């Protein structure tokens, strides 16, 4: 089953005006169900634009976007995906638990069920003791885990992440990468992940999609086949070979 499918997608901002920008040109992309795909490329190559098209936050100028076999708009209405961006985007006046419950409230899930689901998600990201805290009482890494718990609360088949770990220190980042992989494996979630980090893309992904700027295009798709997805993978020859392959693709 296909989680995401883009065919012939272009995106032009401010069309017909002096400040017209072709952010994406003729992009084809397929993400299979359960697959983890990272988008990497220079600043301004259209990574966030691509993610926002999948999330139906903006519309393509040309081409089609399908999520779980449905048009992107229908998939958004039926909450086929969860989103986590660089800034955790939590509501400061809501407790951690009530932040995670928010998408369930919007879906009109009954209170008891909401509470249970929020607890389940907080346990999944290792924050079961922090449900009653407010976001300001948590570290950046913990806030990011709350954002992931919230994105997963409706059990979406697809997770869209835009540099979710960009603001974190290297150690926290590596720990969260590991946790994210475990969560995705446990829940069978497909993921599209935007990053600037080659090593992050390689460690996390089944496939790294390399993009170039002006206009934004996909220039390479590199399949990653690591012997495992635990910390030892970061020492494996396959990991270093894949990093080299992605670096070369970014340069060429
Ligand atoms: N709402 C908008 N209006 C006009 N131009 C936009 C808009 N959003 C993005 N762009 C332009 O589209 C291009 C792609 O932007 P986008 O944010 O997708 O790049 P990116 O690869 O995510 O960049 P970065 O790595 O710096 O986050 C850029 O030239 C940007 O200026």
Automatic annotation (TrEMBL):
It comes from the Bacteria. Keywords: ATP-binding, Nucleotide-binding, Transport. One of its GO terms (molecular function) is ATP binding. Pfam families: ABC_tran. SMART domains: AAA. SUPFAM superfamilies: P-loop containing nucleoside triphosphate hydrolases. CDD domains: ABC_NrtD_SsuB_transporters. Gene3D superfamilies: P-loop containing nucleotide triphosphate hydrolases. InterPro entries: AAA+_ATPase, ABC_transporter-like_ATP-bd, ABC_transporter-like_CS, ABC_transporter_ATP-bind, P-loop_NTPase. Residues 4-238 form the ABC transporter domain. This is ABC transporter ATP-binding protein. It comes from Dactylosporangium salmoneum. The lineage of its organism: Bacteria, Bacillati, Actinomycetota, Actinomycetes, Micromonosporales.
């Amino acid at each position: 089953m296909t989680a995401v499918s883009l065919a012939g997608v272009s995106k032009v901002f401010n069309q017909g005006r002096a400040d017209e920008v072709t952010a994406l040109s003729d992009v084809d992309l397929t993400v299979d169900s359960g697959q983890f795909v990272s988008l990497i490329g220079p600043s301004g190559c259209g990574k966030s634009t691509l993610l926002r098209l999948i999330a139906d936050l903006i519309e393509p100028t040309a081409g089609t976007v399908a999520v779980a076999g449905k048009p992107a708009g229908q998939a958004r209405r039926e909450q086929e995906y969860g989103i986590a961006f660089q800034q955790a985007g939590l509501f400061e006046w809501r407790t951690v638990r009530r932040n995670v419950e928010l998408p369930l409230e919007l879906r009109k899930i009954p209170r008891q069920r909401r509470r249970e689901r929020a607890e389940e998600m907080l346990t999944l990201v290792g924050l079961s003791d922090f449900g009653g805290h407010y976001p300001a009482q948590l570290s950046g890494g913990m806030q990011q885990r709350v954002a992931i718990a919230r994105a997963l609360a409706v059990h979406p088949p697809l997770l869209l992440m835009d540099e979710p770990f960009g603001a974190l220190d290297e150690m926290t980042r590596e720990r969260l990468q590991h946790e994210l992989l475990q969560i995705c494996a446990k829940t069978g979630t497909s993921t599209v992940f935007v990053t600037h980090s080659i090593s992050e893309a390689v460690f996390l992904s089944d496939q790294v999609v390399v993009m170039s700027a002006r206009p934004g295009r996909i220039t390479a798709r590199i399949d990653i086949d690591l012997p495992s997805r635990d910390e030892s993978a970061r020492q494996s020859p396959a990991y270093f070979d894949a990093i080299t392959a992605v670096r070369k693709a970014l340069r060429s």
